[in-house]
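Anyone up for a design puzzle?
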């Protein structure tokens, strides 16, 4: 690998959330519909996701941890009870397998292509899921599997036994991508990309940048934290806008790095530094 790309790729980091950002959790409704009516299936899919997240937040507050696969199965049970329906053990196991093969959002291909044109950006997966769950989700998704090599690493919360948006999760991410958590500039070089507001606020709270993927186009509504720390650094409506947004923010820094690696332009007249996006 080119030395310049190696150095630059370690400076700016894009940490992509999985569930609700790369993969659509609502797509599980199609599988549920094979057991229940369409309306009931949609309701269960929505409540399943809500309780899945609620359980993780409650465990954070209680100082407890169960891995995400158990949380996912137990929250499914809760959602089924609430809708007054049930699945037997075999059906539940089959449903859990379906959760490992969720469909991608349609902008994944364009996003991955934009990453390929930005070798100065390091991309990682950053998820509440276990390493096994995330790996299965990537490998079982035709749209995502072909881009698996675009990600340098999979960073999961089971390594610290906390869930987003606990601060330890984000500090763990920073350390995994080689950042000094006491250096504010280095923390700002990490961008969490997520469609989940709680993830955005969690990243901003520790000094990271964050891009919120507002697929519904409703605008930022989360009001838990006042000021800039309670808002995303950038808002995009589609995932494929992320790379351009980050490159624009860090264009001066990336150009400076280019010059540092290549020397002054006068010494290398045939080489031209990357233009600002």
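Challenge accepted. My sequence:
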């Amino acid at each position: 690998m080119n030395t310049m790309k190696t150095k630059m790729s370690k400076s700016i980091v894009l940490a992509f959330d999985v569930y609700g950002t790369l993969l659509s959790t609502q797509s599980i409704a199609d599988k549920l519909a094979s057991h229940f009516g369409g309306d009931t299936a949609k309701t269960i899919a929505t409540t399943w996701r809500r309780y899945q997240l609620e359980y993780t937040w409650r465990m954070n507050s209680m100082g407890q941890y169960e891995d995400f696969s158990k949380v996912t199965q137990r929250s499914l049970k809760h959602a089924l009870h609430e809708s007054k329906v049930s699945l037997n053990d075999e059906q539940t196991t089959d449903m859990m397998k379906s959760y490992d093969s969720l469909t991608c959002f349609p902008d994944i291909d364009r996003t991955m292509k934009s990453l390929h044109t930005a070798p100065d950006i390091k991309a990682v997966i950053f998820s509440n899921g276990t390493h096994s769950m995330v790996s299965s989700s990537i490998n079982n998704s035709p749209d995502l599997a072909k881009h698996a090599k675009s990600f340098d690493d999979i960073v999961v919360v089971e390594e610290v036994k906390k869930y987003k948006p606990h601060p330890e999760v984000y500090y763990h991410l920073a350390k995994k991508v080689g950042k000094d958590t006491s250096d504010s500039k280095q923390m700002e070089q990490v961008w969490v990309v997520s469609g989940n507001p709680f993830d955005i606020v969690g990243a901003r709270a520790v000094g990271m940048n964050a891009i919120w993927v507002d697929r519904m186009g409703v605008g930022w509504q989360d009001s838990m934290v006042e000021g800039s720390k309670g808002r995303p650094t950038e808002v995009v409506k589609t995932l494929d806008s992320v790379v351009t947004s980050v490159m624009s923010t860090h264009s001066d820094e990336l150009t400076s790095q280019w010059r540092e690696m290549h020397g002054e332009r006068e010494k290398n007249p045939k080489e031209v530094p990357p233009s600002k996006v």
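A detail worth pointing out: The two ends are 24 Å apart (CA to CA).
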